[in-house]
Amino acid sequence: MKVLKIYSLEKGWCDKDYILLHAVFQLLVDFVEKEKPDQLVDWYSDPAHKHAWREIRSLYRWWTQRRPARRSPLDEHGLKKPPMRWKKIPGSDNSQLMDYDKKKYAAYDTALKNHWRLEKKWDEEEQRNLHRLIEVRQFLWT
User: Taking the domains of the chain in order of start, what are their residue ranges?
Assistant: First the structure.
């Protein structure tokens, strides 16, 4: 049985779209770090190999260096965050997150809006890079 250990995921629940992204890029990391394709493949033998190798290295650097370096405005040191308070939804077993005082936590509110803007940008970047990796998947062998 083959097992893929995904080192970029933290323990706990993850949605399947998130697992998919991390699994595919773990395969890329394993390919680059364990199979040593730079030593075993002539990446300059033709234009297709040259392009694929450029993409593989670019995607590897993005996943291992640039993506982990992303910082959310919510991680800003000293940012005063509102307490998370929940209220029961009448007639159900569920609870709902209560709104916070947006004037009292104005800096947090601004950071949250910026975070959601960045999150959208990051999601689009991840989707583009996932497509790029799929485009070169046939070159992931040694």
Answer: 16-139
Contacts of 28 (CB under 8 A, 6+ apart): 56, 59, 60, 63, 133, 140
pTM, entire model: 0.86
Q: What is the biggest distance separating any 2 CA atoms in the chain, rounded to whole angstroms?
A: 67
Q: How far apart are CA 27 and CA 33, in angstroms?
A: 10
Dig out the tokens for 60 from the structure.
Answer: 């590897």
Stretch 102-109: mean pLDDT, rounded? 96
Two tokens at 131?
Answer: 């497509």
Say which DSSP state 2 is in.
-
Neighbours of 137 (CB within 10 A): 12
Question: Rounded to the nearest 5 degrees, what angle is found at the Cα of 72, between the Cα atoms of 66 and 77?
Answer: 115
